């Protein structure tokens, strides 16, 4: 919508609809439009609502009232209908629905849901985390986010916990199309009620379209580019990281997203070795050219309360001021995180190598619960005692070399000799997923979502911390 169009549309919804009905072309999809409320004060002057300080920004939805009208034919006669007072926080999503060809009925249904959502107090945004199955309810004016390389939505789960509304997520891996579609389906199941639209195209393809239907100036843009060629497991096999043409074109597309969308804050997560790649340099150059202040470092997410040792590169960029990472938290052992689930887990038996690992541990230590991997570990089986975070959870733990389900991926040995098979629910908690997130039944898909994801508990801390710093910067 152009500046001139927005500036001219200041009629009340009914008047706009009356004028629109005179047009020769009927809009079967409906029309979203801005308007201003006019009120006359006692002194005879007129004021316009919503009130703004300074000039009214034609590109800021919160500077306008919003309505939606459409036409229906009854007994051969076209009649107009209209919905006014649409929450401005829903405008970007309605634009996206229109530009991507959604039918009018779906748009109207989304608008009605947006109008009936009750805002939550800001202080209550994170109260549901790990305490209840109830999903957070976001206020209509919640900040919005776009996510590239979305996977199953680990970063989005953290965003929602921090009071941020994901509106577009891009997820498609052409090297694993069936798995990617299954992951995208789970993403839609968990986040569609927040108005999040998942696009099953590659980021390169979306960039070629000029990011059609994406909101400009979103509050957040996040990316977790595919990291397989930079992971420690890959380089252990290949001898070195092999940066491919796909890696480079993905980085170029991401740089273009930064230039075109101009997010308020840009975040990135990847494996540590990504920082040494040409792909990362491309992204850094784009941020520098666009005037962002950039801070990045390799962090162990166990230092932020995740019951898992997980080292990842984390970047935060914003304009005009720097944003620091949140403060460290107390270390949490894997056992304390999932002890309540262990009695309900399936009984198991240790493999010979696992049994040897237990005996080796007991020869030098007092008995304590052990979490023991069933796969990986070319020399020794990996395990962790109860008081420590578990080892890094990988997608490969849940699938064999053909991508099929593993019936068991890790075992829990208890001092009384009981052995339990770690469940998907337990693995999800160790990865920081909130209890309201619903996983698919297939182990390979659920495990891939867990292994690929940014831990939502870390993401929630990160974005809550950023939100507080942004608020302080503009007080």
From TrEMBL:
Keywords: Methyltransferase, Restriction system, S-adenosyl-L-methionine, Transferase. PROSITE patterns: SAM_MT_C5. This is DNA (cytosine-5-)-methyltransferase. Pfam families: DNA_methylase (PF00145). Its EC number is 2.1.1.37. SUPFAM superfamilies: S-adenosyl-L-methionine-dependent methyltransferases (SSF53335). Belongs to the class I-like SAM-binding methyltransferase superfamily. C5-methyltransferase family. GO terms for biological process: DNA restriction-modification system; methylation. One of its GO terms (molecular function) is DNA (cytosine-5-)-methyltransferase activity. The active site is at residue 227.
């Amino acid at each position: 919508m152009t500046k001139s169009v927005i500036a001219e549309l200041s009629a009340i919804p009914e008047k706009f609809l009356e004028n629109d009905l005179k047009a020769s072309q009927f809009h079967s999809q409906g029309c979203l439009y801005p308007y201003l409320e006019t009120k006359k004060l006692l002194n005879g002057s007129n004021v316009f609502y919503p009130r703004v300080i300074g000039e009214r920004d034609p590109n800021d939805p919160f500077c306008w009232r919003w309505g939606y009208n459409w036409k229906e034919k009854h007994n051969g006669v076209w009649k107009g209908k209209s919905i006014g007072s649409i929450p401005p926080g829903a405008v970007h999503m309605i634009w996206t629905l229109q530009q991507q060809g959604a039918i009018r009925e779906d748009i109207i249904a989304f608008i009605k849901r947006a109008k009936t959502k009750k805002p939550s107090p800001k202080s209550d945004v994170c109260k549901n985390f790990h305490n209840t199955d109830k999903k957070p309810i976001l206020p209509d004016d919640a900040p919005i986010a776009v996510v590239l390389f979305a996977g199953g939505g680990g970063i989005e789960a953290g965003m929602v916990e921090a009071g941020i509304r994901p509106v577009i997520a891009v997820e498609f891996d052409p090297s694993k199309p069936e798995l990617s579609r299954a992951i995208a389906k789970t993403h839609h199941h968990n986040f569609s009620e927040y108005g999040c639209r998942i696009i099953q195209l590659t980021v390169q393809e979306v960039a070629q379209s000029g990011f059609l239907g994406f909101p400009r100036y979103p509050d957040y843009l996040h990316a977790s580019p595919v990291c397989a060629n930079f992971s420690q497991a890959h380089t252990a096999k290949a001898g070195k990281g092999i940066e491919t043409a796909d890696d480079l074109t993905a980085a170029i597309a991401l740089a273009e997203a930064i230039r075109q969308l101009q997010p308020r804050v840009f975040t990135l997560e990847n494996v540590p070795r990504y920082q040494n790649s040409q792909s990362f340099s491309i992204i850094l150059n784009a941020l520098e050219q666009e005037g962002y202040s950039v801070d990045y470092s390799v962090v162990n997410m166990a230092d932020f309360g995740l019951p898992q040792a997980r080292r990842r590169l984390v970047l935060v960029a914003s304009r005009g001021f720097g944003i620091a990472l949140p403060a460290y938290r107390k270390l949490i052992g894997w056992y304390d995180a999932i002890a309540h689930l262990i009695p309900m887990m399936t009984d198991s038996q240790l493999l010979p190598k696992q049994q040897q690992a237990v005996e080796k541990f007991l020869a030098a230590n007092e008995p304590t619960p052990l979490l023991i991997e069933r796969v990986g570990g070319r020399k020794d089986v990996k395990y962790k005692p109860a008081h420590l975070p578990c080892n890094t959870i990988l997608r490969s733990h849940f699938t064999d070399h053909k991508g099929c389900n593993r019936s068991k991926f890790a075992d829990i040995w208890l001092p009384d000799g009981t052995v339990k098979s770690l469940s998907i629910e337990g693995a999800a908690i160790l990865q920081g997923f909130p209890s309201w997130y619903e996983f698919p039944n297939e182990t390979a898909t659920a495990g891939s979502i867990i292994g690929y994801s940014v831990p939502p508990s870390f993401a929630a801390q990160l974005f809550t911390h950023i939100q507080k710093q942004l608020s302080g910067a503009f007080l």
